[in-house]
Amino acid sequence: MPIERSNFSAVDRQINLAIEQNPEADQVAVHYWPSVNGERMNLPSGTVTVRDVPAAQGRRDLGPRLSAGLSYAILLGGICTIAVAVYTILVSYSSLPWWDTWEYMAAIAKGESPLSPSWLWRQHNEHRMVIQKLFFVVDLEMFHARQVFLLASIVIIQLLHLGLWGWSMRRLGGWRGALWRSGVGLMAFCIFCPSPWLTYAMGFQVCFVLSTLFATLSFVGLLLYWTEAQRHPGKPSSKFLWLSILAALCTTYSLANGNLVWPLLVAAALFLRLRASAVLSFAITGAVSTSLYFYHYVRPSYHAAPAVPPGTPVRLLEFVAVYFGGSWVNEAVVTAGVIGIIGLAAALVVLLRTPYYVRTSRAFALQLVLTSAFCVGTAVLTAAGRLPFGVTYALQNRYQTFALLFWGSLGLLLLQYAFSLRAKQYRFLMAQICLLAVLVRGAILADRPIREARGYGFALNVVSTALRTGVDEPTAAIAAATSSDKFLLGVNYLKEHQLSLFWGWDTSLLGSPLDKAYRVVSPGECTGRLELAPPMGSAAPGLHIEGWAWDRRHHRPPYEIVATTDGMITGLAVVGHRRPGARAVDPEIRSSYTGFVGYVRQPKPGAVVKVYAILRDSPPSACYFDTTDEGRHTAK
Question: How far apart are CA 518 and CA 438, in angstroms?
Fold first, then answer.
């Protein structure tokens, strides 16, 4: 358009009009020809005036602010997940060993030295868990076999694992700011997610978290050696090489899937074109370690038969798909399988991009590729051994330790890809929003694994109560151990050496007068109801009691329950069973975990049993709330 050379306001008006017509643009331009006295000047290209749209700067500033805010929210979600994991340990704690641990206790009860090389090396199922057994020995010899050391070690190992991931994001990936916070929050969620709740209730599971920590460390060591070799191609430092090898050895002797680390390290060393000496170091050490591992190896009886039946490859794939899909759904096998297939397809795409990551020296992306491959290999190895139990066995919660690490690796790759598209910043924002949605969904569903963990811990504490009172139910051994013989051997050893449930427990409590053991307070300080099951047939006759109780003084379930016969303490009960119906009886009750289950030594015919809630006073006090006397039985 022709505009008078001196009429700058006309240019401004045209620019403002362009801004009004294009409010979403970052800049607008007006192309005009200056004129004199209404005649256009003879300029070949005219004049272009470019001006920023005022709102554009605000939009450019808004993106980073939103991204920073979302990253802090994701990081907070990860921290909350850690708190939930610790909470799960506290509410499900039991000092009683469970299942596989009784095999350890039985061997020691038979005179086996817990530090003897033969016992440490001895195969457990398909594993040689030398390092896990060392943790067990420390708990046995220094912490009275109460599982406190093992459960605390699980949390510490997971924190170290998270710290290693956070450090490698910065060191290998160069992640900073919103990207780093989002990545750490994601990995905190995946490492501490309560879905594998058995990890937080059973100290034996320390082998699972050891395996993931050492596998990650071995991959980080390899990639640090590679980056060092790129900086100093002449003679790179070998410290990271030996770190990787040592971590791989620790992985191997934490869990059987550690044997998968060696072929991954060798393949990666070849692909990264490391020095021949480095490749040979991995190959020779791996070959020797694997040979020793399988020396005198005994194939577990439940493993799939050597003759592969028709359809086994498809069944293996189905098992692996459900293994990973179980992170998203709890029981729907078909849905889990579909989700797992999607995850495996994504992992395959990532694997195909490995040459690009090598060419562009993206060390952290290669760490994610190796981690994903390790998790997939673990799933295949598990499927090969557990397929006889059916595909649904892939939904066992303990396998989520590796499945969640797999999804975390894919999630970090997604964040990295979205962040690299800086010209399309909204994609990183969308990735953060999706990640935050996953964390919110996890928070909504967290009640289920916590409830299952509490139920598990409560069941073990009920068995502990039966053992302390001497009223041994026939099902006690079945509930806690794979073999009743090993269970009884272990219990006798624990009792003889005052370990586990017997450590710090006053054996004189049973048979002592109630008023000598506790200060008796007014019945108004508590409320509850006693329910009786039929008398049990067991070696030591007794009554099975159950019901619910509430500490009105402290507004919480009581510490425990004691039962008396003629004023003498003759029974114990543990509190913590889920009884939501009790809340409908008394609106003052705020918890659903008010139920108790316990045992009373067989009273004389006609004797009256009274039950007392032990309140959390200092010292503890006893509050009467019900009796077996029908005339005085609480009708609540």
Answer: 49
- What is d(CA 626, CA 628) in angstroms, rounded to the nearest whole number? 7
Sign for the CA dihedral angle at 393, 399, 404, 405 comes to negative
Tens-place pLDDT, residues 438-463:
999 999 999 999 999 999 999 999 99
Q: Using alpha carbons only, give the angle 70, 363, 439 rounded to the nearest 5 degrees.
A: 25
How much is the average pLDDT of 213-236? 91
- Residue 48: Cβ-neighbour burial (10 angstroms; 0-12, 13-18, 19+): exposed
Cα–Cα distance between 409 and 187 in angstroms, integer?
Answer: 8
pLDDT at 2 (0 to 100): 43
Give residues with Cβ within 8 angstroms of 561, minimum separation 6.
549, 572, 573, 574, 575, 596, 598, 611, 612, 613, 614
The three-class DSSP label of residue 343 is helix
Full 3-state SS string of 84-99: HHHHHHHHCCCCCCCE
* Alpha carbon distance 425, 432 (integer Å): 11
Query: What is d(CA 393, CA 386) in angstroms, rounded to the nearest whole number?
Result: 7
User: pLDDT per residue over 302-311, tens digit each?
Assistant: 655 444 454 5
More confident residue, 215 or 542: 215
pLDDT at 475 over 90: no
- CB 416, CB 203: distance < 8 Å: no
Give the containing element (helix H, strand E) for 598: strand 595-601
3-state SS class at 561: strand
Instruction: Report how far residue 523's alpha carbon sits from residue 528's, in angstroms, rounded to the nearest whole number.
Output: 10
What pTM was computed for the model? 0.86
Q: What are phi and psi of 575, to 5 degrees?
A: -105, 145
DSSP classification of residue 503: T
176: Cβ contacts below 8 Å, ≥ 6 apart: 170
Bridge-based pairing of strands 519-521 and 621-627 is parallel
CA distances to 608, 633, 635 from 630, rounded to whole Å, are 9, 5, 10
C-alpha–C-alpha distance, residues 433 and 427, integer Å? 10
List the one residue out of 415, 418, 274, 413 whose CA is nearest residue 357.
413
Short-list 595, 612, 600, 602, CA closest to 469: 600
Supply φ then ψ for residue 418, to 5 degrees: -65, -40
C-alpha–C-alpha distance, residues 417 and 429, integer Å: 12
DSSP-derived letter for residue 308 is P
Distance of CA 319 to the CA centre of its chain: 21
Among 240, 214, 242, which residue's Cα sits nearest to residue 229? 240
